[in-house]
Amino acid sequence: MVSAGQHHFLEQMRVRTADGTRARQMLVTLMADYWLAEGALAPSGVLVDLMCDFGVSESGSRTLLSRLTKEGRLVVVREGRRTFYCLSEQARVRLASGLRRIADFGHVRREGPDQWTCVGFSVPEQQRALRQQLRKGLSWLGFAPLYDGLWITPRPVARDAAALITKLGIDSASLFEGKIDGIGLGHGNPTDAWDLTVIEGLYREFLDGAEPLLGGLDEVSLDPASALVLRTELVNVWRSFPRIDPDLPLDLLPEDWPRSDAQGVFVRLYDSLAPAAMRRVRGVLDRNAPDYGQHVSAHIIGTRTSTWLD
Protein backbone atom coordinates (compact mmCIF):
# COMPACT_ATOMS: atom_id res chain seq x y z
CA MET A 1 0.00 0.00 0.00
CA VAL A 2 1.16 3.55 -0.68
CA SER A 3 1.78 5.24 2.64
CA ALA A 4 1.60 8.92 3.50
CA GLY A 5 5.33 8.98 4.14
CA GLN A 6 6.07 7.63 0.69
CA HIS A 7 4.52 10.62 -1.07
CA HIS A 8 5.67 13.30 1.38
CA PHE A 9 7.99 14.50 -1.38
CA LEU A 10 4.93 15.84 -3.25
CA GLU A 11 4.14 18.20 -0.39
CA GLN A 12 7.73 19.44 -0.39
CA MET A 13 7.68 20.00 -4.15
CA ARG A 14 4.27 21.66 -4.05
CA VAL A 15 5.52 24.30 -1.62
CA ARG A 16 8.31 25.24 -4.02
CA THR A 17 6.46 25.08 -7.33
CA ALA A 18 2.76 25.88 -6.82
CA ASP A 19 0.89 29.07 -5.90
CA GLY A 20 -1.58 29.49 -3.06
CA THR A 21 -2.27 27.59 0.15
CA ARG A 22 -2.51 23.81 0.16
CA ALA A 23 -6.20 23.81 1.18
CA ARG A 24 -7.13 26.17 -1.64
CA GLN A 25 -5.20 24.14 -4.21
CA MET A 26 -6.75 20.86 -3.07
CA LEU A 27 -10.33 22.17 -3.19
CA VAL A 28 -9.96 23.73 -6.63
CA THR A 29 -8.29 20.56 -7.91
CA LEU A 30 -11.10 18.38 -6.51
CA MET A 31 -13.60 20.47 -8.46
CA ALA A 32 -11.46 20.30 -11.61
CA ASP A 33 -10.86 16.56 -11.34
CA TYR A 34 -14.39 15.39 -10.49
CA TRP A 35 -16.90 18.21 -11.14
CA LEU A 36 -15.53 19.87 -14.28
CA ALA A 37 -18.48 19.09 -16.56
CA GLU A 38 -20.76 22.01 -17.34
CA GLY A 39 -23.49 22.23 -14.70
CA ALA A 40 -21.94 19.57 -12.44
CA LEU A 41 -23.10 20.18 -8.85
CA ALA A 42 -20.95 19.24 -5.86
CA PRO A 43 -22.91 18.97 -2.58
CA SER A 44 -21.34 21.16 0.08
CA GLY A 45 -21.34 18.31 2.63
CA VAL A 46 -19.45 16.07 0.21
CA LEU A 47 -16.76 18.68 -0.39
CA VAL A 48 -16.39 19.27 3.35
CA ASP A 49 -16.04 15.53 4.05
CA LEU A 50 -13.52 15.06 1.24
CA MET A 51 -11.46 18.00 2.44
CA CYS A 52 -11.17 16.26 5.81
CA ASP A 53 -9.01 13.68 3.98
CA PHE A 54 -6.53 16.52 3.43
CA GLY A 55 -6.57 17.54 7.08
CA VAL A 56 -8.81 20.58 6.55
CA SER A 57 -11.47 21.21 9.22
CA GLU A 58 -15.17 21.67 8.44
CA SER A 59 -15.03 25.36 9.38
CA GLY A 60 -11.89 25.83 7.28
CA SER A 61 -13.53 24.20 4.26
CA ARG A 62 -16.70 26.26 4.55
CA THR A 63 -14.68 29.47 4.90
CA LEU A 64 -12.71 28.54 1.78
CA LEU A 65 -15.89 27.72 -0.17
CA SER A 66 -17.30 31.11 0.77
CA ARG A 67 -14.09 32.87 -0.24
CA LEU A 68 -13.89 31.13 -3.63
CA THR A 69 -17.53 32.04 -4.24
CA LYS A 70 -16.88 35.71 -3.49
CA GLU A 71 -13.95 35.59 -5.91
CA GLY A 72 -16.23 34.30 -8.66
CA ARG A 73 -14.55 30.91 -8.97
CA LEU A 74 -17.49 28.99 -7.54
CA VAL A 75 -21.23 29.51 -7.82
CA VAL A 76 -23.68 28.61 -5.04
CA VAL A 77 -26.79 26.64 -6.01
CA ARG A 78 -29.49 26.00 -3.42
CA GLU A 79 -32.24 23.41 -3.65
CA GLY A 80 -34.47 23.64 -0.63
CA ARG A 81 -32.24 23.25 2.40
CA ARG A 82 -29.40 21.74 0.45
CA THR A 83 -26.43 23.71 -0.81
CA PHE A 84 -24.32 22.84 -3.83
CA TYR A 85 -21.32 24.38 -5.54
CA CYS A 86 -20.33 24.40 -9.19
CA LEU A 87 -17.48 26.01 -11.04
CA SER A 88 -18.19 29.39 -12.56
CA GLU A 89 -18.02 29.36 -16.35
CA GLN A 90 -14.81 31.39 -16.34
CA ALA A 91 -13.15 29.06 -13.83
CA ARG A 92 -14.41 25.97 -15.65
CA VAL A 93 -12.99 27.13 -18.99
CA ARG A 94 -9.65 27.99 -17.43
CA LEU A 95 -9.39 24.68 -15.57
CA ALA A 96 -10.39 22.74 -18.69
CA SER A 97 -7.64 24.56 -20.58
CA GLY A 98 -5.21 23.63 -17.84
CA LEU A 99 -6.16 19.97 -18.08
CA ARG A 100 -5.67 20.02 -21.85
CA ARG A 101 -2.25 21.55 -21.34
CA ILE A 102 -1.34 18.82 -18.86
CA ALA A 103 -2.55 16.14 -21.29
CA ASP A 104 -0.52 17.61 -24.17
CA PHE A 105 2.58 18.42 -22.16
CA GLY A 106 5.61 16.29 -22.94
CA HIS A 107 4.09 14.71 -26.07
CA VAL A 108 5.24 17.37 -28.52
CA ARG A 109 8.80 16.60 -29.58
CA ARG A 110 9.47 20.17 -30.56
CA GLU A 111 12.83 20.58 -32.30
CA GLY A 112 14.28 23.65 -33.94
CA PRO A 113 14.11 27.17 -32.49
CA ASP A 114 12.58 28.77 -35.60
CA GLN A 115 9.29 30.03 -34.21
CA TRP A 116 9.12 31.84 -30.87
CA THR A 117 6.68 34.29 -29.32
CA CYS A 118 8.29 37.36 -27.75
CA VAL A 119 6.84 40.18 -25.65
CA GLY A 120 8.73 43.40 -25.06
CA PHE A 121 7.37 45.81 -22.46
CA SER A 122 8.27 48.68 -20.19
CA VAL A 123 6.08 49.29 -17.15
CA PRO A 124 7.25 52.10 -14.80
CA GLU A 125 8.08 51.49 -11.15
CA GLN A 126 5.01 53.46 -10.11
CA GLN A 127 2.91 50.67 -11.63
CA ARG A 128 4.69 47.82 -9.88
CA ALA A 129 1.48 45.89 -9.16
CA LEU A 130 0.51 46.04 -12.84
CA ARG A 131 3.97 44.86 -13.84
CA GLN A 132 3.67 41.91 -11.46
CA GLN A 133 0.29 40.99 -12.96
CA LEU A 134 1.80 41.03 -16.43
CA ARG A 135 4.77 38.91 -15.39
CA LYS A 136 2.54 36.39 -13.63
CA GLY A 137 0.25 36.15 -16.65
CA LEU A 138 3.15 35.72 -19.05
CA SER A 139 4.67 33.06 -16.82
CA TRP A 140 1.39 31.14 -16.85
CA LEU A 141 1.50 31.23 -20.67
CA GLY A 142 5.01 29.73 -20.65
CA PHE A 143 7.09 32.88 -21.04
CA ALA A 144 10.37 33.56 -19.24
CA PRO A 145 12.54 36.71 -19.15
CA LEU A 146 15.44 36.65 -21.58
CA TYR A 147 16.18 40.25 -20.59
CA ASP A 148 14.44 42.46 -18.06
CA GLY A 149 11.82 43.72 -20.52
CA LEU A 150 11.88 40.90 -23.07
CA TRP A 151 10.02 37.65 -22.36
CA ILE A 152 10.01 34.66 -24.73
CA THR A 153 8.39 31.26 -25.16
CA PRO A 154 8.51 28.51 -27.81
CA ARG A 155 4.72 28.32 -27.71
CA PRO A 156 2.52 29.96 -30.41
CA VAL A 157 0.60 32.06 -27.89
CA ALA A 158 0.73 35.54 -29.44
CA ARG A 159 -3.07 35.81 -29.36
CA ASP A 160 -3.24 34.89 -25.66
CA ALA A 161 -0.41 37.30 -24.83
CA ALA A 162 -2.16 40.08 -26.74
CA ALA A 163 -5.37 39.38 -24.84
CA LEU A 164 -3.50 39.58 -21.53
CA ILE A 165 -1.86 42.89 -22.46
CA THR A 166 -5.20 44.34 -23.54
CA LYS A 167 -6.95 43.10 -20.40
CA LEU A 168 -4.33 44.80 -18.20
CA GLY A 169 -4.54 48.01 -20.25
CA ILE A 170 -0.83 48.13 -21.03
CA ASP A 171 0.01 50.29 -24.05
CA SER A 172 3.80 50.05 -23.82
CA ALA A 173 4.15 46.42 -24.95
CA SER A 174 5.01 44.92 -28.33
CA LEU A 175 4.58 41.38 -29.67
CA PHE A 176 6.80 39.42 -32.04
CA GLU A 177 6.34 35.92 -33.40
CA GLY A 178 8.91 34.33 -35.66
CA LYS A 179 12.57 33.31 -35.87
CA ILE A 180 14.53 33.96 -32.75
CA ASP A 181 17.29 35.75 -34.71
CA GLY A 182 14.76 38.45 -35.45
CA ILE A 183 15.04 39.82 -31.93
CA GLY A 184 18.77 40.34 -32.09
CA LEU A 185 19.94 37.32 -30.11
CA GLY A 186 22.86 36.74 -32.42
CA HIS A 187 24.46 33.44 -31.51
CA GLY A 188 22.88 33.27 -28.06
CA ASN A 189 20.67 30.43 -26.93
CA PRO A 190 17.03 31.38 -26.22
CA THR A 191 16.90 28.77 -23.45
CA ASP A 192 19.15 31.13 -21.45
CA ALA A 193 15.81 32.55 -20.26
CA TRP A 194 15.33 29.39 -18.19
CA ASP A 195 17.52 27.91 -15.45
CA LEU A 196 17.88 24.47 -17.01
CA THR A 197 19.84 23.11 -14.07
CA VAL A 198 17.01 23.90 -11.68
CA ILE A 199 14.34 22.52 -14.04
CA GLU A 200 16.23 19.28 -14.63
CA GLY A 201 16.70 18.94 -10.87
CA LEU A 202 12.94 19.23 -10.33
CA TYR A 203 12.30 16.54 -12.94
CA ARG A 204 14.84 14.23 -11.28
CA GLU A 205 13.35 14.89 -7.85
CA PHE A 206 9.89 14.08 -9.17
CA LEU A 207 11.09 10.84 -10.78
CA ASP A 208 13.00 9.77 -7.65
CA GLY A 209 9.88 10.23 -5.53
CA ALA A 210 7.16 9.13 -7.95
CA GLU A 211 8.60 6.04 -9.62
CA PRO A 212 8.68 3.96 -6.40
CA LEU A 213 4.96 4.70 -5.90
CA LEU A 214 4.05 2.75 -9.04
CA GLY A 215 4.74 -0.55 -7.27
CA GLY A 216 2.12 0.16 -4.62
CA LEU A 217 -0.64 0.55 -7.19
CA ASP A 218 -0.81 -3.19 -7.90
CA GLU A 219 -2.27 -3.95 -4.49
CA VAL A 220 -6.04 -4.26 -4.25
CA SER A 221 -5.77 -2.93 -0.69
CA LEU A 222 -5.05 0.61 -1.90
CA ASP A 223 -7.07 2.80 0.44
CA PRO A 224 -9.53 5.00 -1.53
CA ALA A 225 -8.99 8.06 0.69
CA SER A 226 -5.21 7.74 0.35
CA ALA A 227 -5.57 7.34 -3.42
CA LEU A 228 -7.67 10.53 -3.60
CA VAL A 229 -5.13 12.53 -1.60
CA LEU A 230 -2.17 11.17 -3.55
CA ARG A 231 -3.82 11.81 -6.92
CA THR A 232 -4.75 15.36 -5.96
CA GLU A 233 -1.31 16.15 -4.56
CA LEU A 234 0.26 14.61 -7.66
CA VAL A 235 -1.58 16.76 -10.20
CA ASN A 236 -1.01 19.90 -8.13
CA VAL A 237 2.72 19.37 -8.41
CA TRP A 238 2.73 18.25 -12.04
CA ARG A 239 0.63 21.14 -13.35
CA SER A 240 3.53 23.45 -12.48
CA PHE A 241 5.88 21.74 -14.94
CA PRO A 242 4.30 23.10 -18.18
CA ARG A 243 4.89 26.58 -16.75
CA ILE A 244 8.44 25.82 -15.60
CA ASP A 245 9.38 24.06 -18.86
CA PRO A 246 7.07 25.13 -21.74
CA ASP A 247 8.05 22.17 -23.95
CA LEU A 248 11.43 23.70 -24.73
CA PRO A 249 12.92 22.41 -28.02
CA LEU A 250 14.86 19.21 -27.40
CA ASP A 251 17.75 20.13 -29.64
CA LEU A 252 18.47 23.13 -27.40
CA LEU A 253 18.45 21.06 -24.20
CA PRO A 254 21.01 18.81 -22.53
CA GLU A 255 21.04 15.18 -23.61
CA ASP A 256 18.66 12.81 -21.80
CA TRP A 257 16.33 15.65 -20.83
CA PRO A 258 13.99 13.90 -18.32
CA ARG A 259 10.71 15.53 -19.37
CA SER A 260 9.36 12.50 -21.25
CA ASP A 261 10.25 10.03 -18.48
CA ALA A 262 8.67 12.22 -15.83
CA GLN A 263 5.55 12.74 -17.93
CA GLY A 264 5.17 8.98 -18.43
CA VAL A 265 5.39 8.31 -14.69
CA PHE A 266 2.89 11.07 -13.93
CA VAL A 267 0.30 9.76 -16.42
CA ARG A 268 0.63 6.17 -15.16
CA LEU A 269 0.19 7.25 -11.55
CA TYR A 270 -2.60 9.74 -12.18
CA ASP A 271 -4.68 7.39 -14.34
CA SER A 272 -4.03 4.30 -12.21
CA LEU A 273 -5.18 6.08 -9.06
CA ALA A 274 -8.47 7.19 -10.65
CA PRO A 275 -10.60 4.08 -9.86
CA ALA A 276 -9.68 4.05 -6.16
CA ALA A 277 -10.05 7.83 -5.88
CA MET A 278 -13.48 7.61 -7.50
CA ARG A 279 -14.50 4.96 -4.97
CA ARG A 280 -13.75 7.48 -2.24
CA VAL A 281 -15.68 10.29 -3.94
CA ARG A 282 -18.66 8.04 -4.70
CA GLY A 283 -18.63 6.59 -1.19
CA VAL A 284 -18.98 10.06 0.31
CA LEU A 285 -21.62 10.95 -2.28
CA ASP A 286 -23.64 7.83 -1.47
CA ARG A 287 -23.77 8.87 2.18
CA ASN A 288 -24.61 12.52 1.58
CA ALA A 289 -26.38 12.89 -1.78
CA PRO A 290 -26.79 9.59 -3.64
CA ASP A 291 -29.11 11.20 -6.18
CA TYR A 292 -26.25 13.41 -7.49
CA GLY A 293 -23.87 10.65 -8.52
CA GLN A 294 -24.34 11.44 -12.21
CA HIS A 295 -22.62 14.79 -11.69
CA VAL A 296 -19.22 13.30 -10.84
CA SER A 297 -16.55 11.85 -13.15
CA ALA A 298 -12.77 11.46 -13.05
CA HIS A 299 -10.51 12.82 -15.74
CA ILE A 300 -8.25 10.26 -17.45
CA ILE A 301 -5.26 11.49 -19.46
CA GLY A 302 -4.15 8.27 -21.18
CA THR A 303 -2.44 9.06 -24.47
CA ARG A 304 -3.72 12.63 -24.82
CA THR A 305 -7.33 11.42 -25.09
CA SER A 306 -9.91 13.39 -23.16
CA THR A 307 -11.81 10.62 -21.45
CA TRP A 308 -13.70 10.35 -18.19
CA LEU A 309 -14.22 7.63 -15.60
CA ASP A 310 -17.84 7.59 -14.40
Automatic annotation (TrEMBL):
Q: Name one Pfam family in it.
A: PaaX
Q: Tell me the superkingdom of the source.
A: Bacteria
| Annotated GO biological process | DNA-templated transcription
Pinpoint the Transcriptional repressor PaaX-like C-terminal domain residues. 194-279
Domain Transcriptional repressor PaaX-like central Cas2-like, chain residue ranges per copy: 114-181
Transcriptional repressor PaaX-like N-terminal domain location = 22-90
Q: What is this protein called?
A: Transcriptional regulator, PaaX family
Q: Which organism is it from?
A: Rhodococcus jostii
